[in-house]
C-alpha cells in the first residue's frame, strides 16, 4: 500500500474525531512540556556551572601536580624543596607545556617551633587576611594588620599563662616565632582541651597576618605543588599524565612519596555526568505523566477500533492484509502523539525561556532535547497503540459481517 495513502488515512481519521484526538493529545503535550522544560533548564545549568569552572576566553587551561610524602611527619619537618629547579626544567620540556610554577596549597596555615618560659612549643598558625577570631583580651587581627605587614599575633592564654598572671598582662609583650619577634595584641580562649589529657600532644593555635608571614618567613614556605599551564592544542590530561610519569621516573622526591595530578577537564567530565544524570532522573519522574497519557491513547484507540469495525471489514474484503490494518492504526497513534510531542516541546521551550529571566543562566533550543521530546512521544504512540491496532488486524471478515 502506498505510504502516502497510509498517512492520508491516518490524518483523516484523527480529523474525524477532532475533540477526542485533541483531549487525548493534551496529556502528551503536558508530559513532553514538563520533560523538555526540565531538560532545557538542566542543560542550561550544566553549561553555566562548567563555564564558571573553566577559564575565560583567551586564557589557558592549567593542571596541578602535587607531591605527597609516604611519611607525613617528614613532610612537615623537612626544609627540602619538593620540586627542585631540575624538576621544573624537566617538566618544561614536556610536549604541550607552556609554563610551570610552584605553589603552596597550605597557604592558610603555617607552623613554628618556639621557646616559652624555657619550654619548647610546636605552634600551628592561621594566616589571617581580613578579620581574626574573637578574643577575651586585647583585639582581633584585621585587614589593616595584613596590609601593613604588622608583626602582631593573637595567642591562646594556655600558651602564655605560665609567664603572665592574666590575659591583660600578656598584651604588648613579645613572642618569638621562628627568627622574628611578634607583639601580642590579643589573647584567645584557645582549645577546650588545652589543659586536658591531650595537653602537650596537640599543637597550640595562634593567628598572624598572612602578609607578615609571607614577608618575614618566605624561606620557610614548603611548596608541595606545581601548576602547569597547557599550551593551546594540547590535552590537559595527556600533559598531566606524561609529567607525572616523568616525575615518577626521574623526580627528585620519587623515592619519598607519590605524585598525583588534577586537571579541570577531569572535573568537568565528572561534574557534567553528575548534572546530566540528575537532570535525566528528574525528567524521568516528570515523564510518569507520559505513561498516564499513553493509557489515554490506548483507550482512545480501542474506542476507535470498535467504532470502525465496519470499515475494517470492508477493507479486509477488498484484500487488505492484517499487516496493513495494524500499520494503519499504529500510524494514527504515532501521528497523534508526535504532533503532541512537537507542541509539548514548543510549550516547554516557552516555559524554560520565561524561567531564564529569573535565573542566572540562559536556556535555548537544544537538538538533543528536541530529539528526545519527539522520539519519546512517538515511542509512546507506538507502544500504546500497538495492542488496539493488533486487535483490529485480527478481526475476521465473517465475524464482522
UniProtKB/TrEMBL annotation:
Stretches assigned to the ABC3 transporter permease C-terminal domain: 284-397
Cell membrane listed as a keyword: yes
Transmembrane segments: 21-42, 280-305, 325-347, 367-387
Top-level taxon of the source organism: Bacteria
Lipid bilayer topology: Multi-pass membrane protein
Keyword Membrane: yes
One example GO MF annotation: transmembrane transporter activity
Residues of the MacB-like periplasmic core domain: 21-242
Keywords carried by this UniProt record: Cell membrane, Membrane, Transmembrane, Transmembrane helix
An annotated GO cellular component: plasma membrane
A Pfam family of this chain: MacB_PCD
Subcellular location: Cell membrane
PANTHER family from the UniProt entry: ABC TRANSPORTER PERMEASE YTRF (PTHR30572:SF4), MEMBRANE COMPONENT OF TRANSPORTER-RELATED (PTHR30572)
Family: Belongs to the ABC-4 integral membrane protein family.
Protein name as annotated: Putative ABC transport system permease protein
Amino acid at each position: 500500500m502506498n505510504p502516502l495513502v497510509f498517512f492520508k488515512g491516518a490524518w483523516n481519521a484523527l480529523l474525524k474525531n477532532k475533540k477526542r484526538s485533541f483531549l487525548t493529545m493534551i496529556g502528551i503535550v503536558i508530559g513532553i512540556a514538563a520533560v523538555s522544560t526540565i531538560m532545557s533548564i538542566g542543560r542550561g545549568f550544566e553549561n553555566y556551572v562548567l563555564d564558571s569552572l573553566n577559564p575565560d576566553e583567551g586564557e589557558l587551561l592549567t593542571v596541578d601536580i602535587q607531591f605527597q610524602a609516604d611519611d607525613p611527619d617528614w613532610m612537615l619537618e623537612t626544609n627540602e624543596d619538593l620540586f627542585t629547579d631540575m624538576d621544573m626544567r624537566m617538566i618544561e620540556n614536556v610536549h604541550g607545556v607552556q609554563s610551570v610554577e610552584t605553589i603552596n596549597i597550605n597557604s592558610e596555615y603555617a607552623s613554628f617551633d618556639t621557646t616559652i618560659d624555657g619550654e619548647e612549643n610546636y605552634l600551628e598558625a592561621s594566616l589571617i587576611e581580613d578579620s581574626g577570631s574573637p578574643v577575651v583580651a586585647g583585639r582581633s587581627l584585621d585587614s589593616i594588620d595584613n596590609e601593613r605587614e604588622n608583626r602582631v599575633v593573637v595567642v591562646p592564654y594556655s600558651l602564655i599563662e605560665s609567664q603572665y598572671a592574666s590575659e591583660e598582662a600578656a598584651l604588648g609583650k613579645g613572642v618569638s616565632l621562628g627568627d622574628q619577634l611578634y607583639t601580642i595584641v590579643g589573647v584567645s580562649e584557645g582549645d577546650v582541651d588545652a589543659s586536658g589529657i591531650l595537653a602537650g600532644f596537640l599543637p597550640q593555635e595562634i593567628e598572624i597576618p598572612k602578609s607578615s608571614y609571607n614577608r618575614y618567613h618566605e624561606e620557610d614556605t614548603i611548596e608541595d605543588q606545581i601548576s602547569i599551564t597547557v599550551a593551546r592544542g594540547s590535552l590537559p590530561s595527556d600533559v598531566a599524565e606524561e609529567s607525572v610519569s616523568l616525575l615518577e621516573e626521574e623526580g627528585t622526591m620519587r623515592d619519598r612519596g607519590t605524585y598525583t595530578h588534577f586537571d579541570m577537564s577531569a572535573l568537568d567530565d565528572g561534574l557534567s555526568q553528575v548534572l546530566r544524570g540528575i537532570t535525566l532522573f528528574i525528567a524521568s519522574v516528570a515523564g510518569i505523566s507520559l505513561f498516564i497519557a499513553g493509557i489515554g491513547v490506548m483507550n482512545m484507540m480501542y474506542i476507535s477500533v470498535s467504532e470502525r469495525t465496519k470499515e475494517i471489514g470492508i477493507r479486509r474484503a477488498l484484500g487488505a492484509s492484517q499487516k496493513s490494518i495494524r500499520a494503519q492504526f499504529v500510524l494514527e497513534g504515532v501521528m497523534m502523539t508526535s504532533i503532541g510531542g512537537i507542541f509539548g516541546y514548543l510549550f516547554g521551550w516557552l516555559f524554560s525561556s520565561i524561567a531564564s529571566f529569573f535565573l542566572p543562566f540562559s536556556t535555548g533550543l537544544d537538538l538533543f532535547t528536541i530529539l528526545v521530546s519527539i522520539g519519546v512521544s512517538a515511542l509512546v504512540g507506538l507502544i500504546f497503540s500497538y495492542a488496539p491496532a493488533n486487535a483490529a488486524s485480527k478481526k475476521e471478515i465473517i465475524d464482522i459481517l
